[in-house]
């Protein structure tokens, strides 16, 4: 079937279209939120077909069609538009787009138009032209007898795993969800990849999906046993001569965490792993050292401070996460005392009560020896996770819901970055509970725009957790007719439309 790129600035619309395409047996090779990303991702993936929204921030859908068609005249693009955008659709068709869909889209409308533009045979031919051979693909997804068969190939790597992760995100919206992960005759995959696939299985189970894992190679099955990959071992059979070995995912047990010279395993949830990734690019231009005093042990220390004046915003997500060009400030949002190991968000580092000051040393005493390493240089993702969980540990039991909510939300974003579906969902659930409590029970005076921002965030967290009815209500609460932020009003209306679509 076809390899398809989905482009829309609405996360809900992307997931909706992606789930339809996957259910129809196609593979979603990527998702883009604006025309610029769509152009770059087309170059990277050379998809058989693109679904393209029209109104997007930055480079819109019309300009993206122009850019893609200039470089790839044979590109097949389907425009996705509102009824009021017909004139823009005609502009896109003149530029080379092949067809269009009118929102709200349905399963039948998407499948019908895709077949008209591409067709099964055309899709296979295009895939061979773009990729050289279908056997070079890291995975393929087919819908057979109401079960999605995810066929893993030996070409799956750390670098292209995110494509599988993106495809699976679309599957999570399908109800009921039945999945078979088929390793076929693969003899070996690195443990890190097997653990990531295990995370996918757990994410499917978390949404009540029924998952099976199939393997045919005896050496591969032995590898699963030797490495004790959590989630891929239950009810393993060895009847290789006549049928595949099947692993039914019946439990959600927890994998052990690897040790390191600076990570204390007591900090993390059992499912947390290590990633050993460095941040990209130099940090000297974005970080400076500042002398300060630790509010807990009163030692003189140096901490890293982000030069926000040097940052250029790339894009802002619907849940208000800001992405910057060439630097990720989330990695440097936690400061730590090099002496007592007190850690906190930068903005809250000095905001400590006497109760906290007296309780934190005791909390840290059992962890201190396990948190070594230099946190004043370029950080790894493992160090970043350590600092976030250490900050949570410091405020545990202090009823500091404001800090807790911010920490869990940022952890959800960080888990997104390392393609950990289940842990991202766990963190976003905790953030949602805390932000709900803050919003509904806070006695602080807030402005109309602050309330709008909070209800918008609550709505997006509800969407992340599949609570669409609650999300709709929070989007309604965001819309203010007098004194509110007009952009948030319009965004909330669009998001309500996206969910209904």
Name its key features:
501 residues, alpha/beta, Rossmann fold, Transcription Regulator spoIIAA, 3 domains, 5-stranded parallel beta sheet, 5-stranded mixed beta sheet, 16 helices, globular
Task: Outline the structure in words.
With 501 residues, the protein is α/β, with parallel strands linked by helices. The chain has three domains: 3-130, Rossmann fold, CATH 3.40.50.2300; 139-248, Transcription Regulator spoIIAA (2-Layer Sandwich); 265-444, no CATH class. The chain is 43% helix and 16% strand. The chain is built from 16 helices and 16 strands. The chain has a five-stranded parallel sheet, sandwiched between helices. Strand 7, helix 7 and strand 8 form a beta-alpha-beta unit. Helix 11 (381-395) runs antiparallel to helix 12 (401-417). The radius of gyration is 24 Å and the shape is globular. 40% of the residues are buried.
Would you kindly provide a brief summary of this structure?
Helix 7 runs parallel beside helix 8 (191-206) and helix 14 (448-464) runs antiparallel to helix 15. The chain has 501 residues and is an alpha/beta fold.
């Amino acid at each position: 079937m076809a390899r398809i790129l989905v482009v829309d600035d609405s996360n809900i619309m992307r997931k909706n279209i992606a789930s339809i395409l996957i259910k129809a047996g196609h593979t979603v090779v990527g998702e883009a939120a604006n025309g610029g990303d769509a152009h770059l991702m087309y170059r990277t993936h050379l998809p058989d077909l693109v679904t393209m929204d029209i109104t997007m921030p930055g480079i819109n859908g019309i300009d993206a069609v122009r850019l893609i068609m200039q470089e790839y005249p044979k590109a097949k693009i389907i425009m996705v538009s509102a009824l009021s955008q017909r004139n823009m659709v005609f502009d896109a068709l003149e530029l080379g787009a092949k067809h269009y869909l009118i929102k709200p889209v349905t399963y039948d409308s998407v499948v019908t138009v895709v077949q008209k533009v591409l067709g099964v045979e055309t899709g296979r031919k295009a895939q061979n032209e773009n990729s050289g051979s279908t056997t070079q693909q890291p995975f393929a997804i087919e819908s057979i007898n109401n079960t999605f068969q995810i066929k893993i190939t030996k070409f799956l790597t750390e670098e292209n795993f995110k494509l599988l992760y993106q495809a699976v995100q679309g599957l999570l919206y399908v109800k009921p969800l039945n999945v078979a992960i088929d390793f076929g005759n693969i003899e070996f995959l690195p443990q890190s990849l097997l653990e990531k696939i295990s995370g996918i299985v757990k994410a499917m189970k978390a949404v009540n999906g029924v998952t099976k894992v199939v393997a045919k190679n005896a050496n591969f099955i032995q590898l699963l046993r030797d490495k004790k990959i959590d989630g891929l071992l239950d009810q393993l059979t060895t009847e290789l001569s006549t049928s595949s070995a099947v692993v039914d995912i019946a439990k959600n047990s927890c994998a052990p965490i690897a040790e390191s010279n600076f990570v204390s395993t007591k900090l993390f949830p059992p499912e947390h792993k290590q990633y050993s990734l460095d941040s990209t690019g130099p940090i000297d231009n974005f970080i400076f050292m500042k002398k300060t005093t630790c509010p807990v042990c009163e030692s003189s220390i140096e901490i890293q401070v982000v030069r926000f004046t040097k940052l250029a915003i790339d894009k802002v997500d619907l849940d208000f996460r800001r992405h910057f060009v060439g630097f990720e400030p989330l990695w440097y949002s936690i400061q730590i005392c090099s002496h007592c190991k007190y850690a906190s968000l930068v903005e809250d580092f000095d905001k400590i009560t006497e109760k906290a000051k007296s309780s934190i040393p005791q909390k840290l005493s059992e962890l201190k020896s396990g948190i070594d390493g230099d946190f004043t240089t370029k950080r790894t993702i493992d160090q970043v996770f350590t600092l976030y969980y250490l900050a949570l540990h410091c405020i545990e039991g202090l009823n500091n819901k404001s800090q807790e909510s911010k920490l869990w939300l940022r952890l959800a974003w960080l888990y997104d970055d390392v393609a950990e579906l289940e842990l991202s969902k766990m963190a976003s659930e905790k953030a949602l509970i805390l932000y709900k409590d803050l919003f509904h029970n806070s006695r602080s005076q807030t402005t109309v725009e602050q309330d709008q921002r909070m209800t918008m965030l609550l709505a997006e967290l509800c969407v992340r957790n599949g609570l669409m009815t609650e999300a709709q209500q929070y989007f309604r609460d965001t819309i203010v007719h007098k004194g509110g932020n007009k952009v948030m009003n319009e965004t909330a209306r669009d998001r309500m439309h996206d969910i209904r679509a």
